[in-house]
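Q: I'm writing up a methods section and want to include an example of the input and output format. Could you take the sequence below and give the corresponding predicted structure tokens, formatted cleanly so I can copy it straight into the document?
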Amino acid sequence: MDSLPSKSSSITLRDITADNWEHIIRLVVNKDQLALVPSNIHSLCDHQFVSGSYVRAVYANETPVGYIRVNVNTQQHGLVQCFMIHQACQGLLFGTRAMALLQLELENQGVATLTVNTKPFETVPLEDSPAHFFTALGFQPGNNEHQLVCELKRSDLSTKYRN
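A: Here is the clean output for your methods example:
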């Protein structure tokens, strides 16, 4: 990463293309978060072979800082497969703003709910769990004990964290 973006950087979600994929696969989370998300290259490879897979690069101004992969099924339900912000860019609200943009994009495509599988979160201490991040964004416990679900018909989140 050439220069670090700042908290005031504009956050956008972009397609992953032949021009930026190599930057995306070089992004990594903090060492204590490695068990929570697959590597970006592994997730991108899976994306190529999974129907309904949706990927986005997270940019702060013109710098790639994160990666998102969601699988959307035929019932218009999304499941977050990978959501990461590069270790040097965490704590700058980029993840919060990127998730708000993702929710708005998916809602505009007719996706009704977005789910996060929380089973991997059990591998880290409760105070370090990403569950806090997702519940602060409006995700609620789902029918399965290892899920957090967000109804996407909520314009408050997407406008609250808009750039």
